[in-house]
Amino acid sequence: MPEQVAEAIVRLEAHNLRVDEELAKGQRESIELQKAAPAVQQAMVRAMERIADRLEGLALPRPLSGADAVAPPTTKALLADWRQRLSVVNACLRPCASTPVSARGAARRTQHRCRCSIKADRH
Fold first, then answer.
1. Which helix (H) or strand (E) holds 70?
2. Contact predicate 107/84, CB 8 Å
3. Which are the contacts of 107, defined by CB distance < 8 A and separation ≥ 6?
4. Superkingdom, according to UniProt (predicted)?
5. pTM for this structure?
């Protein structure tokens, strides 16, 4: 066998060995990821359950049937519930945020009387 052909075969075999090593390394990493996947999925399930529980706590009561229908909440009750759940909202912003859209133009023309730095025309 010519020497050049033998050298080419040796180089190809060396290259194949490197590629095989890289493939084996990739397969080991894939196996490790597959082993870790159930733990990650369980963490995602727990997080989604916490989100669902929180959303259920925020939901309004729904009627079970026509006979057991719950009366729709009043505006005052909805705003009270809103204020309670969003207690982090500054007391100054609540009146502006709860003002109906049609009244906001009139609200802008009124004097803003709170202690914050927001100008009346920006409320």
1. none
2. no
3. 96, 99, 123
4. Bacteria
5. 0.36
Element (H, E) at 1: none
Q: What is the pLDDT of residues 12-46, one digit of tens each?
A: 999 999 999 999 999 999 999 999 899 999 999 99
- Domain range summary for the chain, segments of one domain joined by +: 1-59, 75-122
- Among candidate residues 75, 76, 97, the one with its CA nearest the CA of residue 86: 97
- Residue 97 CA from chain centroid, whole number: 24
* Residue 120 pLDDT exceeds 70: no
Per-residue model confidence as pLDDT tens digits over 71-112: 777 888 888 887 777 765 555 565 666 566 555 555 454 544
Q: What torsion, rounded to 10 degrees, do the Cα atoms 8, 14, 20, 25 define?
A: -150
Give the separation between CA 80 and CA 87, rounded to whole angstroms.
Answer: 10
d(CA 55, CA 57) in angstroms, rounded, equals: 5
Looking at residue 97, its pLDDT comes to 60
Task: Give the number of other Cβ atoms within 10 Å of residue 92's Cβ.
Answer: 16
Residues listed for the chain: 123
